[in-house]
Each structure stands twice: as structure tokens, then as C-alpha cells.
Design brief:
The chain has about 130 residues and is α+β, with helices and mostly antiparallel strands. The protein has one domain. It has 6 helices and 4 strands. The protein has a two-stranded antiparallel sheet with strand order 1-4. A two-stranded antiparallel sheet has the order 2-3. Strand 2 and strand 3 form a beta hairpin. The radius of gyration is 18 Å and the shape is globular. About 15% of the residues are buried.
Length: about 130
Amino acid sequence: MKLTKIQREELRSKYDGQCSYCGEKLGDKWDADHFIAIKRNWITKNGKQVFTDYINPENDTLENMMPSCKPCNNDKSSLDIEDWRSMIANKILCLNRDSLTYQKAKRYGLVIETDIDVVFHFEKYEATNE
């Protein structure tokens, strides 16, 4: 769905110009993310992936879109919100397992881990604006 300029501006202001997921202020380059992902059919044609159509076009609506910074939209990809929340919560485990730089920073007290739940900006926003 291609948004009009008015729709895009309305979506941008949905959470006071902040990414609905991380809460960062949206700059000039931001995405309209499908909260419930739309699935696309792809075929290989001449060695390239080519989009053919949507599997669930009913989710391609303005009501299903969230303002998102590019890093959050790329990270969320086509995950549903609970799968993405679990993936984010698992990042500390991955850093402890895979990143020597992170492990060293942690040993020197430069990183302090918490055991807080992943709460998205839109959840905090909606809870305070009910």
C-alpha cells in the first residue's frame, strides 16, 4: 500500500514522531511497518527473486501500520511482535556467547545487564495515554 503524504504524516505522528518500537525520534528516513506482517510470494526468475503477490493482502492497511525507524523495521522483519520480543530478550545471551568485545566490556564493568522485560514504546505510550 502506497501511503499519501497526509497518511504518512498521520502515521508519523501516531506516537509523537517516535518509533513505535524503540521510541527513538523519527528522522527524515523512517518506515511504515506492517504490525502484522504481510507475506509475499516470491519466485526465482532468471536467477533473481521476483515478487509476485501478497499471501495476506488484508493486512496491507493503514490501520495495520506502525511508524518505525529503519533499524527496528529491519530487525523485526516479518516476525510477529511476540517472536520479535523474544528475539530481543535473547540478545544478551547471544552477546555473552558470541562477542569477545561485549564479554570484555562486561568484565570491566562497562556493561551492566538487567533482567527487565522488553516493552515496546507503543505499549508504554498507550498505557500512559488511556
